[in-house]
Design a protein that fits this description.
single chain, 696 residues, alpha/beta, eight-stranded mixed beta sheet, 19 strands, 47% helix
Length: 696
């Protein structure tokens, strides 16, 4: 019984962690975004296997608690051991402070963080060594602080999982890993999106209360510090459980195999999901996915792109007309789902300008985003290749001198710029675009008088467009055509924008407001642009970067990838194009309209050509999909392949070309031809990048 009490810090924290996880699952189970009902078996799986997974994850996560507790003793302060240990800490502190330690090779803040930690540890050890009368009191407060940190992290993780689910409808994934990198923008986004002071005040208050009760039930550990025998028993028990946990966690994760994605997500442990996302940010297609021989993969690709040469996508694109070097403005709109627009069924009138502009444009009614992140949209319209596994090319180290839309414009003497109202450092945009020949115009280019409103993501869209007009007026005087790619920011949480612009106040932070203000700012831009001498000689390409949400019952819910897209030429007649197409086809189609003749490496195609075969690519960072012949084929890690028959779930009052809701029904008989075609696209794209065959 006495030994059992020595384990009290572990089991009291564990019980609290299980309680928080259970409550969180209940909340997410009934959350509005959880668009599913569950059978009794599925519910048992969610909560029972979820609890087992939580237990083993807690064992691994408590490694630091075990290390802290196991080194609590009085004997280490006895002579001469205490002085030897203190001397070691002092030497270690001086070594790190010298600026020549191994930590300095990594640069950044790491050496300072380690120095502060060692400094605090050295000071506390010296205090406990030289002032033994205060030892018990100091140890008690240190013990309380460690428990407080664990309780805080448990609660903080629960809150983070809730907010992440609220945004994406899943437990932690690859996006959460990215969020750790861009802390300034993300913390700023949280600060502006949620009532942070009340939330964190409540968080710290609850943490303090819970810590008080856990401390009360666990303080016997420091009141009667375990002897060496008891510590060995604790260590043996912990290491045994740790080893079992390392094996058990991934084994249990394999049971997350329901056809209903929400069952898998609710069953999963968020911390382990985060670990997996961190590990999988770089996915080698050839290691994790089903493959064909290179010869067969490129042979199948040649059926889609008949003029390619060998194991590459290089081919000649020829036009029978003279090239038209009109100016081009590409606007990628942040988080703009097709379902926001009137023709797709929205009755809130939040896109009045785009609803009217598309009637004057070449409108693509059946267009799918390549991914669910901004970098995927930017990759799609810039590199025109399918979304490969892992991180977007934009975020990779090998992201420069690629065959890009900008490169084709530069060959024709265009000024080429990427314009972004925020800090282009975010999402590695500056590194990618500058490394591919684009000039960068971002928030740092704005003078104070050019900024009327900004939030954590950058200046409002109106400010960006005002700046863009100034830049384009200057470019027009150079007697050179220009290609300017503008990325908007206002339609992003926290959805703040200037007041008194639209009938939804900017300070209530609503998504509908963000959408409507984005539409309003676009109208203002076109009003200004139409007054400029270069307007009638300019083609405008408008497309969403991705949808507002990617959550659904399946891995790749089609309605969460359907986006608006159109090409507006003030001198051209409106046309509606209803065939299935991908975001990667948009710019090659534009080049066709401009009659460009060029040597292409693009996977994207001119959809207006008679040899185009309708298909679309949609993906997450690990699930790679191809839509073709009313079938969705999905490639996943571990060589998994799934196929779904797509049945339209028609909504009354919406024209057939604007229906976006599909039931994804697992195919009973595999379409091997589509499986091989999907593999062909993604394998060859991965091959082109891996072997640097997609260079400019």
């Amino acid at each position: 019984m006495n030994f059992y009490k020595k384990l009290s810090p572990f089991y009291n924290l564990a019980l609290f962690y299980f309680a928080v996880s259970f409550i969180l699952r209940i909340v997410l189970f009934f959350h509005p975004i959880t668009q599913s009902s569950f059978t009794i078996i599925e519910s048992l799986k969610i909560f029972a296997l979820g609890l087992v997974s939580d237990f083993f994850v807690f064992v691994v996560a408590s490694v630091f608690l075990w290390l802290y507790l196991i080194f609590i003793s009085n004997s280490k302060y006895n002579k001469p051991y205490g002085y030897i240990i203190l001397g070691f800490f002092v030497v270690l502190f001086l070594y790190v402070a010298s600026g020549k330690s191994i930590l300095d090779e990594y640069g950044g803040a790491l050496p300072k963080i380690v120095l502060i930690f060692i400094g605090i540890k050295t000071a506390l050890f010296a205090l406990l060594l030289f002032v033994p009368k205060l030892r018990d009191k100091i140890r008690y407060w240190l013990f309380a602080f460690v428990l407080f940190l664990y309780v805080l992290l448990i609660l903080q993780n629960g809150l983070s999982e809730y907010f992440f689910w609220n945004e994406f409808g899943v437990k932690y994934n690859f996006i959460a890993v990215n969020y750790l990198i861009y802390t300034n923008e993300v913390i700023g986004n949280i600060m502006q999106s949620y009532p942070v002071i009340p939330i964190f005040s409540a968080l710290f208050l609850i943490t303090a209360i819970v810590t008080y009760f856990i401390l009360k039930r666990s303080r016997n550990y420091i009141d009667n510090i375990p002897n060496i025998t008891e510590k060995l028993k604790i260590t043996a028990l912990y290491i045994g459980l740790f080893i079992v946990s390392i094996i058990a966690i991934p084994t249990i994760a394999k049971t997350e195999n329901s056809k209903n994605v929400f069952v898998n997500e609710l069953q999963a442990n968020g911390l382990y999901k985060f670990y997996l996302a961190f590990e999988n940010n770089k996915l080698d297609y050839f290691k994790f996915y089903k493959t064909l021989s290179d010869k067969k993969a490129f042979a199948l690709l040649k059926e889609q792109l008949p003029t390619i040469n060998g194991e590459t996508t290089t081919r000649k694109i020829t036009s029978d007309s003279t090239e038209n070097h009109k100016n081009v403005v590409l606007i990628t709109i942040e988080s703009y789902s097709a379902e926001f627009m009137k023709t797709y069924g929205n009755e809130q009138n939040i896109t009045p300008f785009l609803d009217s502009l598309k009637q004057k444009s070449l409108e693509f009614t059946n267009l799918y985003a390549a991914g669910n992140r901004t970098v995927r949209g930017l990759e799609a319209v810039t590199l025109c290749l399918p979304p490969t596994a892992g991180e977007s090319v934009v975020k990779r180290e090998d992201n420069k001198n690629k065959f890009s839309t900008g490169a084709l414009f530069k060959q024709r003497g265009y000024n080429v710029k990427f314009m972004y109202g925020g800090d282009a450092f975010f999402d590695n945009m500056q590194d990618f675009y500058s490394g591919n020949g684009y000039e960068i115009v971002d928030k740092s280019s704005f003078s104070p008088d050019e900024i009327t409103f900004s939030n954590v993501w950058g200046v409002c869209d109106e400010d960006m467009y005002n700046k863009a007009i100034k830049v384009m007026n200057a470019e027009a005087k150079e007697n050179k055509p220009f290609f300017n790619h503008i990325m908007t920011v206002s339609n992003h949480r926290p959805f703040t924008y200037p007041n008194n612009k639209i009938d939804i106040p900017g300070d209530i932070k609503s998504r509908d407001g963000g959408v409507k203000y984005t539409d309003y700012a676009l109208r203002k831009f076109f009003e200004m642009a139409s007054k400029q001498p270069w307007f009638k000689n300019t083609v405008f390409v408008i497309v969403a970067d991705h949808c507002a949400s990617s959550a659904g019952k399946t891995e790749l819910p089609l309605d969460k990838y359907r986006i608006p897209g159109f090409i507006y030429d003030p001198t051209a007649k409106p046309v509606k194009y209803n065939q299935l197409m991908s975001q990667i086809d948009l710019m090659p189609t534009l080049f066709g309209l401009l009659h460009f003749s060029y040597e292409s490496k693009f996977f994207g195609q001119d959809v207006l050509k008679p040899d185009y075969k309708p298909r679309a690519f949609i993906a997450t960072y690990q699930d790679l999909g191809l839509i073709k012949d009313n079938v969705l084929t999905v490639l996943s890690p571990k060589q998994q392949v799934k196929q779904f028959d797509l049945k339209i779930n028609s909504k009354p009052g919406i024209a057939p070309e604007y229906q976006i809701d599909f039931n994804e029904i697992p195919l009973k008989t595999e379409r091997t031809d589509l499986v091989n075609e999907t593999i062909s696209f993604y394998q060859t794209a991965s091959d082109m990048l891996k072997h640097k065959k997609y260079q400019h």
